[in-house]
Fold each of these.
Amino acid sequence: MRAVRRRIIPLLLALLLLAGCAYPARDPEANESSSVDLLAMDTVMRVTAYGKHREAAELAREKITALESLLSVTNENSEIYAANHALGASVELSPDTAALLSRALELCDSTGGALDVTIYPVVRAWGFTTDQFRVPGAEELSALLERVDYRQVALDGSTLTLPEGVELDLGAVAKGYTGDCVAALLRAEGVESALLELGGNIQAVGAKPGGSPWRVAVTDPNGGGFAGVVEVVDKAVVTSGGYERYFEQDGETYWHIIDPATGRPARSGLLSVTIIAEEGIKCDALSTALFVMGPEKAADYWRENGGFDCILLSDDGRIILTEGIEDSFTPYGDWTDAPVEVLQR
Ligand code: FAD
Ligand code: MG
């Protein structure tokens, strides 16, 4: 069995494309910047604030570390761990955990359960988050799926009650929420230009120093480079794909994005989904959910809900993108000549 995590690759690609942002000393547009690098939420993170903002960058680091210790599903001291082990009793959540969960539940609802934050029993059975990978049998999965239903989560203000057996996993949304918190913190500290690289989640505060848009790489899910570049200002760009974390057994590849309808890795015809919008948690939630939905349902969701742009890379080599991003996305590498379909309302 071979297990793979490749979250470092998108980061390196982003760093390459954003050269000058990650290494601002070489950027003639940026006189001064402060970066913090950290390993959190099992991924490599970098926050760069332009201008004289050393203290703000340090506050960003503290915020990320604090959120990690609240939200980790495996850390026995986290609020999520406590909620998952409360055996039906109510627990009090901190304002951040309550705000994140409340927004996540709205997004579970709006995606018809393609995003389901109670997927943890199934994720654990496959060995994701514990690295003890295995393929659960059909009976085991159908028993576990009885415990998966976000509608069973009762959140009343900051009071959370989970029925016994129901367990939360905020892995699909926590980095997006973290991006929103850090962006808000930096803005409150007077930062007008910053880049947050939180694994596959990129979040931009303002434009690059000098006013040009940030250029963010979209990883080639087939490996070996990137599939395109998207230009953004003041937005989050979040990608989910089967290539990020997976294992192989008996010639089959099993990845970490699970279809809550089957309990098995989602095979919907997509290799990756990139979502672009102002709100990081929405991007994170929808990158996971639209990957589960597949290209047709994802297009329907966008037409019905709007409020974001997306780039879908299909397993038959197509690029499907929304009209709002058409002029700011440039395919690259093996995807340069791929057929492009533009979704219109
Ligand atoms: P996304 O597509 O954003 O999310 C996929 C993840 O969400 C899956 O890994 C699964 O956990 C969950 N998921 C799968 N399908 C669904 C679905 N349909 N609906 C809702 N959720 C779904 N990993 C470790 O190995 N060790 C750690 O110690 C560890 N600590 C972490 C601490 C925190 C606070 C967080 C947020 C994450 C941590 N992780 C850890 C990583 C985590 O387990 C996921 O791998 C990661 O969040 C996946 O993010 P992504 O952007 O790759 O994929
Ligand atoms: Mg996600």
Amino acid sequence: MNDKNSQHKKRMQAVKEKVDQRIENAQEERGIVIVITGNGKGKSTSGFGTIARAAGHGLNAAVVQYIKGTWACGERQLLENAGVSFDVMGTGFTWNTQDKAQDIAAAQKVWQRSKELLSDSRVDVLLLDEITYMVAYKYIDLEEVLSAIKNRPQSQHVIITGRGCHRAIIELADTVSEVQSIKHAFDNGIKAQKGIDW
Ligand code: ATP
Ligand code: MG
């Protein structure tokens, strides 16, 4: 038993040394780009979670939503009350509207707003929810997105969510997570539910 204990202690000491070294090595402080992509559930909720975390620390946070669902998401009211600014694309899901010209105009409008936020040094954290689809459909220009992100204020954090994130955005990002779907209630005929899905 004692032998096992001392072995465990040794192992933990080695782990601690490694972790301490990594903490010591991480000294740079600047705004980062986070991408949450993949087919599983949890991308937007993760983005909103980070916005709530930032707002909780009194940071100035903003959200731009590129695809508006049929129902307003629950996070909006809560976070707006906490001083988070929201800009929402004026159309429904693109596969519902089926009007390409209207969708492009709507996407461009919120993109202009996103660019303003990406050049505003008062914005500490910015969530660009579902922007990946706008780039995939070429409703907004990839190069413009990359350049606006690269030229943003040095301390500003940007969170990008949505499936199929473009490789160039992934390369530019500092932290990238892919949410993998193992299963989803919807596949078994369970309806999207208030407070869980929107
Ligand atoms: P959430 O907003 O719940 O974090 P998400 O942002 O990861 O989800 P989206 O692709 O933006 O996922 O889809 C939004 C809606 O679709 C949510 O209502 C979500 O529950 C649902 N959804 C997400 N992933 C799946 C899936 N794999 N199968 C079916 N429905 C899904
Ligand atoms: Mg989402």
